[in-house]
Design brief:
By secondary structure, this protein is α+β, with helices and mostly antiparallel strands. The protein is built from three helices and eleven strands; from the N terminus they run αββββαβββββββα. It starts with a helix and ends in an 8-residue tail after the last helix.
Length: about 200
């Protein structure tokens, strides 16, 4: 079992390393990081997501990866691990760094670097109940079904945008989180990269 654990971790590191993840051009947007936690259960790759509380000032009730704004001179991984510990209590020492996904820009004024890390299974969390209503896991293959993916035109802050929405069970995962998931699916070979 230990050798299969190492094999998926090494394969994921290779997929995330080549080609290198893309970075946005320099800008005044606030820098942020999220952790994209992965683990294997029953031979399948899973990710962990959070549902934000309905009482937060922004992004109420949205499904997201744990993470947030980077502090001055803070490295992307350090911010992702710190925010993950603050939000769901996951010990940073239990996260094995796998690589980075493409940096993405959010309509809320952030530039976000997704940090992909392997976590133990089963994992233990302690919710920051002021920020996080729920933590749940979904197999990556659930996002790869084209029948569960929708593209919709919306207006955000007066600007027309085409957003991606994954419909998984009774959940809608959209916006920045959906774009991060799409990049991850392309990297692991579950979705084609038609834009490039």
């Amino acid at each position: 079992m230990e050798s299969s654990r190492h094999s998926w971790i090494l394969a994921m590191r290779e997929r995330l390393a080549s080609p290198p993840s893309r970075r946005l051009a320099a800008s005044d947007l606030r820098q942020a990081s999220v952790l994209v936690p992965l683990y294997v259960d029953a031979g399948e790759l899973w990710t962990v997501l959070t549902k934000r509380t309905d009482t937060l000032p922004t992004h109420r009730g949205q499904i997201a990866f744990p993470g947030g704004g980077r502090e001055l001179k803070e490295e992307p991984w350090d911010a992702a691990l710190r925010e993950t510990q603050e939000e769901i209590g996951l010990d940073p020492k239990l996260v094995l760094k796998l690589g980075l996904l493409d940096e993405v820009e959010s309509p809320a004024g952030f530039r976000v670097i997704p940090c992909v890390g392997a976590i133990p299974h089963p994992y233990k969390v302690t919710l920051n109940e002021a920020e996080i209503a729920e933590v749940f896991s979904i197999p990556l293959t659930a996002f790869a079904n084209p029948k569960l993916v929708e593209e919709r035109d919306v207006v955000i802050n007066g600007q027309k945008r085409d957003i991606l929405i994954y419909h998984v069970g009774n959940r809608q995962i959209w916006g920045l989180t959906a774009r991060i998931l799409q990049n991850l699916l392309i990297r692991v070979g579950l979705e084609s990269d038609e834009e490039n």
